[in-house]
Design brief:
Layout: E1 19-22, E2 27-33, H1 48-58, E3 63-67, H2 75-89, E4 93-97, H3 100-104, H4 109-125, E5 129-133, H5 143-160, E6 163-165, H6 194-209
Parallel strand pairs: 2-3, 2-4, 4-5, 5-6
Antiparallel strand pairs: 1-3
Length: 210
């Protein structure tokens, strides 16, 4: 099994802008992520964030979804963009899916941790409930680094009493036939895999929405 798929973000060209997946009264879910959440290489409407919109409608949960994800983004980029997004959208919930590109760029784990802590606290201070989406690194980064990177997300969640999905790609990158669930770049999941990503996010998000 090729464990390098454990990191499904890249340093590819960014696609800017904010996508409103739906509009609804009441709560607003802001998704701040990178290529995993920005539908990189996918037909619009097939990524897990768009599927989240559909699930909310199907289950008659009143909430709007704002996708502020940019391919290639880092935790520093997310931190710089978040203040304006909080003012503009006043989210009731924030989903943070960032950190993978930090590792690909060789940035210190402490820097990523600090950025995630700041984003979480900033959102909580603004009244939003926060859900962190964790990622894992392939073993070629070294066992010590991989373990510290994985534990970082849990540490941030615990320190701030935020919700956590330990591994966004569970059931995709860690399967025996994982190759078929990734695009030809062997980095980004196919549309077929994105329902599993949503299934990984949904249990924790559902708790926050109650």
């Amino acid at each position: 099994m090729n464990r390098r798929h454990f990191i499904a973000t890249s340093l590819l060209a960014s696609v800017g802008g904010v996508t409103h997946a739906t509009t609804a009264g009441g709560r607003t879910i802001l998704v701040l992520g990178d290529s995993l959440s920005a539908e990189y290489g996918l037909k619009r409407g097939t990524g897990w964030v768009a599927l989240l919109e559909q699930r909310l409608l199907t289950r008659k949960i009143s909430a709007s979804v704002v996708n502020a994800s940019i391919s290639g983004d880092t935790s520093s980029g997310g931190l710089s963009r978040l203040p304006a997004l909080l003012v503009q959208h006043e989210p009731s919930h924030l989903i943070i899916e960032l950190g993978g590109n930090d590792a690909l760029r060789g940035l210190p784990i402490d820097l990523t941790r600090d950025n995630l802590n700041q984003m979480t606290r900033m959102a909580q201070k603004a009244g939003a409930r926060v859900l962190l989406l964790g990622m894992q690194m392939p073993p070629n980064y070294g066992r010590d680094y991989s373990e510290r990177f994985t534990k970082m997300f849990a540490a941030v969640a615990k320190a701030n009493k935020a919700a956590l999905v330990p591994f966004l790609l569970r059931g995709v990158a860690d399967t025996s036939d994982s190759l078929r669930l990734f695009q030809s770049d062997r980095i980004h999941p196919t549309a077929e895999a994105h329902p599993q990503l949503l299934d990984n996010v949904w249990p924790e998000l559902q708790k926050l929405l109650k």
